[in-house]
Every structure is written in C-alpha cells, then in structure tokens.
Amino acid sequence: MTGGVVRPLDALRTTGMDVKAGQGFVRSVQEDCIVFKPAGLPPKVLAGEALRDIHDVLISGPWIYAVGTDRNAVYRFDQQGKLDKGWRFSAQPDAWHLNCLAEINGKIYFTAFGEFSSGRGYKEGSLEKGFIQCLETGERVASGLSQPHSICTHGGKVYVANSETGEIFVYDGQFVLLQKIQVGGYLRGIAFADGQLLVGVSHSRNMPVQQGGKAKVMAIDLASRQMRIAFEVPAREIYSILSFASAQDFVSGISDLSFSSFAYLAGRVTGDVHSGIAPKTDAYAGTGARVQPVKRSLVPALFMHTQKTAGTSITVAAARHYGPANICSHGDFVGKSPDEMARFAFVSGHFGFEFAKPLLAGRYSFTFLRSPVERVLSFYYYCRTRDPDEFPINKIAQEHDIDSFLQLVQENQHVRDRIWNSQTWRLSSGPGIPGASVDDHPPADMLARAIANLDAFSFIGFTETFNDDSEVIMRGIGLPNALRPGKLNVTPDRPLAKDHSRQTIQRIEAMTELDLALYEAALKRRRSR
Known about the structure:
By secondary structure, the protein is of the alpha+beta class. It contains 13 helices and 25 strands. It has helices at residues 247-270, 312-322, 338-341, 353-356, 372-385, 392-398, 402-407, 413-419, 422-428, 443-453, 466-477, 502-510, 513-528; strands spanning 14-20, 24-29, 33-38, 44-47, 54-60, 63-68, 73-77, 83-88, 98-104, 107-112, 130-134, 140-145, 148-154, 157-162, 167-171, 177-182, 186-193, 196-202, 216-221, 227-232, 301-304, 327-328, 346-349, 364-369, 459-462. The strands form 6 sheets. It has a 5-stranded parallel beta sheet, sandwiched between helices. The longest helix has 24 residues, at 247-270. The N and C termini lie far apart (60 Å).
C-alpha cells in the first residue's frame, strides 16, 4: 500500500502463503499448485491431482505442509518437493472441507467444516459442526465451530475465524474458549500488527459481480476493542493475511513473492512442473501435471461456450496445449472488454456473440448446441450440485424443485437469462455486453440473427455428437492426439428427460421453442454440406 492505495502484486488465485525467516516462502495457487522458494535455493513449482482444490500451505522446520481439500488430505514435503507423508481423512470428495493450517507448540493443527459422510455434505448445513484437529494425534481440540478458517497465535492465545457467523473465537493455549469478537461478514485471514488484530472480510459471493464490492481489512484495537476499516482491497475476497516483524523481512518476503509468481508462470509455460506426489497409494495418488511448452505456431482460437452444451474438457486440453498464460475461459471475461481478451491465443467463455464478434477475425472459432430440453435439465441439476455461495443461480436452483424453478423464468430475470431460449440469445447477442438481456430483441428477430450468425463460426458442434465433433475441433486448432479430451464436468446420475412428467417437459419445450428451431437449422446446415 502506497499513498493510501492498495496495489495488487499479481493476479494468481492464492489460497494460503507462509514465510519463515531463514527458511523460505511458500504459496498455494488454485487449482493444484504449490510454489515454494527454500532459503538460498531456486523456487520450485509442485502440482498434482492430490493437491486439487489446494487451500493452505505451511512451513515447519524442514517440512512444507499442504492441504488438498478435494481429497480431505494434508501432505508433507521436503525442501526438494518430495512427498514424505500424507494424511487422508475421507474418501468422499471434499467431505470435511479441510482448509487452514497452523503450528502451535510444535504441533500442526487444521480447521475443517465438519466430518460429513458425503461429498460437500456441509452444503446441507455447517452451523457449529466445524472443528480444529491436531494432524498427528487426531485430537479435536475445539468443536462447535461454523466454517472455521485462519488459525493464528498471538500473546499465548489462539485466534480462529468462525467465518459463517462473522466472529473471531479466542482460546487460551489449551484451547479453552475465552471470548468471541463479533466482526460481521465472511471472515478469512488473521494477523497482528501494532497492537491491532487485523481481520479479512470478503464481499459476498451472492452479490452480482456487476454490483462491484470490495473485500476489506478490519483493524481491532486489542486493548479497547474499538474496530475500524483499515483499508479496502481491489478484490472481492481475502483468504489470508501475513504480517512481517521488520522492514527487512517484508522486503525479503516481497522478493520471494515475485520469484514465486515468475516460477509459477514460467513452469506452466515451459512444462517445468515438478511431480513430488508419487501415485503409490490412494492416500496420495496423483501425478504432476507437466504442461506442454508454448508453441509459437499456435492456432488462434475462440470458443463461445454456452453452459451445459459441452466443452469444459476442450478448454482443459487447450490449457495444456496453449499454456494457461495463453488462454482465458468460463467467467474470465466478466468486467472486461473484447479488446482486453484479444491478447489470449485461446479465448473461451460464457459470453455471447456480440462480445465474441470483434475477436473472430483470424481465429478458428467454434461453439456447441444441445437439445434444448436436456440442456435445461442438465443446467438445473448441475447448479444443484455446486456451491450455493459461488453464484446466485446455484442457490436459487437448490431452493426450488424443477417445476418451481421453471416458474421463475417468468418472474426472475437472473433465471430467465439462463433458461428462456438461452442458446438463441447467446448466438444472436448474449451476455458480456453491459446491461444485456434475453428480452433485448423480439423473439423472431433474435432467432433470425442467431441463425445468420452460425455462418460466422468455423465449426458448430453438437453435444449429442461430441466425440466426433471434438475430433474436428482438435484438428482445427492443432491439438496433439495425446491431449484429445473426453467429457468433463458431467453431472453424475442426474435425472433425464424421460424421468420427468410430461407436464414438466412441455413447460421446458414452451420456453425453448426458439432454441429448438436454431438447433434444427444448424443440423440442417450440417447435413446439406
């Protein structure tokens, strides 16, 4: 922060950092990377499936600990990045939601949302089900917590963010609860400086991105308990806060941070990503994801990705082929202009045709269409499996059965833009332009525009023929055979059209008539060629 302004140092999605004087710096980068710089040694990048959804890292003596949240696991590595030991607590994906680590009196502790029997079971309710547990002994030293994060010690006391209730819990050294400090908001990140407790407060994920909103750091005077906003940050969320004992330590930490950013980006581009996780046992199976080097002959490409029509696997394969620094995907376009996205060799996202149009020239371009009824059902059941705090549509779907959800198409613009003839809207104009809505054009005009815009793409694929169509696309962008994708992001065991009442299917058909006409027009064009 200079001149009262907080300035970002980089844009890597970071879920945990640790720095220890004389030992080094370590950082966890979503989705599955550890970047660490041991003191006096070059930085290293470690990636692997076992680290999927990584949530924290910690330096303790010669060891580096990391949380693989998807596998409910904690791993311990040496300074060379070799796996020494792993602890796995459940076979169900993200059943406990392990997140933050701390070393207290020579022992390693972690926070978890609860011990649930099914994957993401905490989505059904996590109030007072969380705990703090000793890694080595398995002892649960504190319970009754609600989505706990950020264990931190100061003055012989232990502080933890009780994130769901917006409180800081304060314990003595034996984990006896001493007090609760009400802050408000969703809390993550605790540090101490100049007699103050610093707490990160994240902006709600339920608020649309267009409404802005910044995360902030609250400063609480430890003596008077007076609270004030220390500063806002140019981001919606805060995960952790680090404080430094001296200016020298701070400069050293920033230097290591810069090294880590460079090492991560260089490793992803050149493929120099170490595999310290050997696939020897279920407890820590996984391989380092060696990424293909960036090739100067890459074919510029654009993928207009309508949700639940197919294509996540293509984007994943493209990331390996082009290098993650050369692609954008899914919601990366939000809040940006087409000009800002033009620098990427592979442009993908849930934007519409008006956003894509300036980017089409000189690119191999493609999109997918899907049978409208199955797309709507797939989208609804997918949203029901996702984090309700990630996007408002997820929460809406989880609070309504299929029929009441469909009723909202007439009442809720947020739902309407994603369901009512959504494929036609996206091919005629679509999201990405500020203020855009599915009701911007008369239905007949919207369909005519969408059909005409089919010719602007190099290839139109269909979900129903994904395997064959993906082969065409992969040849078009020069993807090696070794990277050819299968399907990803498929909602398991979801009900199909045949599993619903005729009345429900008829309601979907009525609100996707234009999509069906577009789908049939695209099929007719393919058959005529």
